[in-house]
Amino acid sequence: MATVYGEHGTGNGKRERVGSRVPAVLAAPFQARTWREFGFLLVGLPLSTLYFGLAIAGVSTGAGLLVTFLGVPMLAGALMMCRGFGAAERARVRGLLGVRIAAPEPVRPRKAGPLSWMGAVLKSGSAWRHLLYALLHFPWAVFTFSMSVALMAWSWSTVTYPLWFWVFPTFTDQPGLQLFQNGDYTFHLEGPGGVALAFLLGVALLLVTPWVIRAFAAVDTALIRGLLGPSRLAHRVTELESDRGVVVDTAAADLRRIERDLHDGAQARLVNLAMDLGLAKEKVTEDPQAAARMVDEAHGEVKIALQELRDLARGIHPAVLTDRGLDAALSSVATRCPVPVRVEVDLPQRPAPAIEGIAYFTVSELLQNVGKHAGATAATVDVWRSADRLLLQVTDDGRGGAEAAPGGGLAGLAERIGAVDGVLLVESPAGTGTKVTAELPWRPRTAGH
Fold it and tell me: Which pTM value belongs to this model?
């Protein structure tokens, strides 16, 4: 069906992508990021040695004293010390790598007092993960420190070998840098061929070293995020709390909008209608013709009030959506759009009412944007199911340049979709139209609906 589809943004300026003319593989050895990651690995060894030694000492002492009462506070103190190590590591990865990792859930004793606090620490999964990090990171830090220092030293020393190869024949009894020795045979990097070979080896090492260091730093970051950050359960709880806040705020805003529409629209009109009918009642006997005109005007007001109430009810939840589903409801929305819109819905069955409602209002808002801002001549709405996801896609041939800027309509729409574990993706190059894709969880309609 042809209908309208509105725009998702108004920007029409051209964006230039200014990329570096130097390939990343050649620029990596000289980038600040490489040296920050190298410094991150260098600092990691002494810190990890300290963490490992103190953790082993604290936990072994506490475990050995468990036969006495002193073992419990000793072990709890050692675990809290490990949590302090975690705070230092999160600060290190934030300061040197620019990666922000949230702190884990705090220790929450059920009651006040030292015994409750110690029990909470000993039951805290995050505290034991911090201890595990202190034990596991030490051998990894030894390996990464040794490898990164060796690679850096060999790469820079060999790539600069043409500048200092003369040191060996001038100040030592060797003709050049000794590469290896096998019995009586010794291979030195000497002469033009040896110097050139050293330089080529140095260039190869210099190009490879930053990526090895980057990989080491990535593993370190993953360890810190996995063991020193919040657990998946705590992260999910935080996410759900945030989503619940979005849902509550959205519901409150919708209620305020409904109250405002009723107060300024149908309610005000019905109040005036009641007054007009009261006046008409008084004039029935003394001026029947004037009373008839007033009743006729009131009849027109009743029709307008009924239309406003229908529009308001459609904005809350349209009857066509409940009765006939997304295909008919979206086709109805498309007919009210000032731009011709083609609607195609391919669903094997109807989704749950909540998901169906979110899909309807998402497309409605996107089409309103198209009609108001896109400057489009045509639009399309496609709805289909893929595995356990419901996908909506609204495209137009307008001016493009749409962005989900904070505080904007698209950003608010993305928040509402995210509250139900959905995703909103906006593709809107300037001058080539806009494509907005929404992905919602598929929940089948139950028998009761």
Answer: 0.53
Contact 339, 6 (CB under 8 A): yes
- pLDDT of residue 360 exceeding 50, the answer is yes
Q: In sequence order, which residues have a C-beta less than 8 Å from that of residue 386 and are 6 or more positions away? A: none
Integer Cα distance of 125 and 128 in angstroms:
5
All structural domains of the chain: 25-228 (no CATH), 255-316 (1.20.5), 321-441 (3.30.565.10)
Q: The tokens of 151 are what?
A: 């690679």
pLDDT value at residue 361: 82
Phi, psi of 187 (to 5 degrees): -105, 120
Identity of the amino acid at 179: L
DSSP assigned state of 377: S
Give the tokens for residue 347.
């669903």
Structure-token pair, residue 163: 């500048």
**Which structure tokens are listed for 1?**
């069906």
234 vs 390: CA distance, rounded Å: 27
Smallest Cα–Cα separation from 446: which of 349, 343, 374? 349
Pair 428, 401: CB distance under 8 Å: yes
pLDDT (mean) for 288-292: 76
| Alpha-carbon span 371 to 363, nearest angstrom | 12
